[in-house]
# Entry
Amino acid sequence: MPSDPHSTPAEGRPPARVVFVTGPSGAGRSTAINALEDLGFEAIDNLPLSLLPRLLEGPPPDRPLALGTDARNRDYSATGLVAAVDRLAGEPGYAPDLLYLDCAADVLQRRYSETRRRHPLAPDAAPVQGIARELALLVPVRARATVLIDTSALTPHDLRAEIGRLFAPEGAGRLAITVMSFSYRHGLPTGADLVCDCRFLRNPHWDPALKPLDGRDPAVQAHIATDPRFDAFCDRIIDLAELLLPAFEAEGKSHLTIAFGCTGGQHRSVAMTEFLAAHLAEAGWPVSKRHREVEQRRVVTAGGADRPEATDR
# Structure
């Protein structure tokens, strides 16, 4: 463990948080690790305890750490894990927690029966035998836990919500939203969760003064807003967002991408992206913007090629 002067936290800097995540196989460790990673933790699963001192060499990390350990690791020792947590608790630059995910033996047995997986501690026997061995092995770890969550009656969504409640930093854990524009000519964006087609709106491409501009320009936005369907469309997009975003957040989703598409990805989709992103930011959602075709055009121009013509038609 780090004990040299360089590991002392900077003046006024809080101790680095390290969460050891453990518990019996099938209790939800992977779900917990993923939830912590979504909260900004640097997550390392199945960490051999022998590598822990090297991992923590030098100054404390800038990001909190989530370290998953279980009995499958080749050098796993329940007493060794407890000792490692105790040693780290004595370091001034660290604030360790031992998160133990508990679960009733009959529930673990049912989960193994449903997935038809072999238990790591009883690969050639019935899962019930491996479950009993592991629960007995983990008794000292459970007794040392600083945070204990019984997952027997929890769904994965419930567990993620509980992890967020217990470990989310101030202001973290909210659904992060990306709003982006794209051209249908270049295909749907990979990973988009919600896609809205803007090709029915009034098109600035046909106005020679607006054609070279893009949807971030107020003149272009004003032109699109003259479409008699524009206000109703915006109202329904906002209503949909206000309905779905809290539901996605409650379900445990960490990121959502909303994409607006038009023919060339320069005018209408860009303007709608700007409109929705501004509304969501004003409502307090963490939101970022991306204009796929506009950014691509900027890259081509910066590379020395002729600036391609806007093709939102």
User: Anything to note?
Assistant: Confidence is low (pLDDT under 50) at residues 3-8, 302-313. Residues 230-251 form the longest helix (22 residues). The radius of gyration is 26 Å.
